Amino acid sequence: MGKPKMIITTGVFIFLFSYGNITGSIGEGGSNSGQQDSKTTQTKTKSTQPVSKPVQAKTKTTQTVSKSTQTKAKSAKPVSKSVPAKSKTAQPVSKPEPDTKNIDFGIVTIGVQNWAAANLNVSTFRNGDTIPEAKTSKEWVIAGESGKPAWCYYNNDPAIGLLYGKLYNWFAVNDPRGLAPAGWTLPNDADWAKLINYLGGQGAAGSKMKNTSRWREDNNGTNESGFTGFPGGYRVENGSFLNIGSIGIWWSSAEYNLLSAIDHYLAQNNSAARSNSPKQRGESVRCLRK
User: Fold this and answer.
1) Could you give the number of structural domains in the chain?
2) Radius of gyration of the chain (CA)
3) Could you tell me which of 215, 247, 272 has the C-alpha nearest to residue 281?
4) Residues 182-224: pLDDT tens digits?
């Protein structure tokens, strides 16, 4: 009966020893796996954080693009400024054209000469340069004293100029740019002498050259020559206007001396006279056809 008890005790011991190993394996396995899982979870959580940083970097890249867009918009501004610059450079190119007013004023043939049928009334030289107008007495005096060309209307009245033409100082007559329009010339002293001699000399030529009206005290002429001489008066050196209605006087291109030039005039009598006057004086001009 003693042998069976030992077998039971031995079986119990083997059972308890096996159970302890099984329990330890289970506990250790569960504990270690749990720790590894939590570490793995933390590692995954940490690894997810850097992912958001590239997203921010992309956002900054987008901002950089918008700045470059602004830069392009700013660079577009100078383009609009260059447009007015072109329009400004286009303005100062034009040059005055020659004044064609009264160039086609008709021709009257007297003997072998072809005279203009009216007094000169241009405000530019043949090359297109402007002849200065001197309205005030001061302007007229300054032009004369400095030897510069100038013109005016009698009493500065353009309505008078329509009939009598302009008055020019001799500096305009003698200007190398040419006072006479293209196709015309200014008569010299010999040209005037030829005209007067053809009409019978100084004593008889005046009546034949004077117009049939506009002369004071009924001193009109017959105008049989067709010259149509009006009493346009003149402007003296100090800027005053004199003798409209009683004297018509015309420059020649001939210089008398350093201070004066030769002119020819019609007065109240029937004569056509020759004289010389200061170069600053304003007188009519009659052209000859070349």
Assistant:
1) 1
2) 57
3) 247
4) 999 999 999 999 999 999 999 999 999 999 999 999 999 999 9
Q: Where is mean pLDDT largest: 7-21, 51-65, 248-262?
A: 248-262
Q: Are 124 and 102 in contact (CB under 8 A)?
A: no
Residue 244 in this model has a pLDDT that exceeds 70: yes
- How is residue 227 annotated by DSSP? -
For residue 15, the tally of other CB atoms under 10 A from its CB is 10
The position carrying tokens 């590239």 is 54
Q: Which two tokens stand for residue 49?
A: 């954080």
Specify if 246 maps to a domain. Answer: yes
Secondary structure of residue 190 in the 3-state scheme: helix
> Could you tell me if residue 210 is inside a domain?
yes
Average confidence (pLDDT) over 12-37: 39
Of residues 224 and 36, which shows the higher confidence score? 224
Residue 73 lies in a domain: no
Concatenate the DSSP letters of all residues of 240-263 into one string.
-EE-TTT-EEEEEEEE-SSSEEEE
* Domain of residue 132, residue span: 107-289
Model pLDDT, residue 105: 63
How far is CA 46 from each of CA 49, 52, 189, 267, rounded to the nearest angstrom?
6, 11, 118, 123
Give me the phi and psi of 170, to 5 degrees please.
Answer: -70, -20
Residues 6+ apart with CB under 8 A from 246: 215, 216, 217, 219, 231, 233, 267, 268
Helix (H) or strand (E) holding 142: helix 137-145
Terminus-to-terminus CA distance in the chain, angstroms? 177
Quick check: is 12 in a domain?
A: no
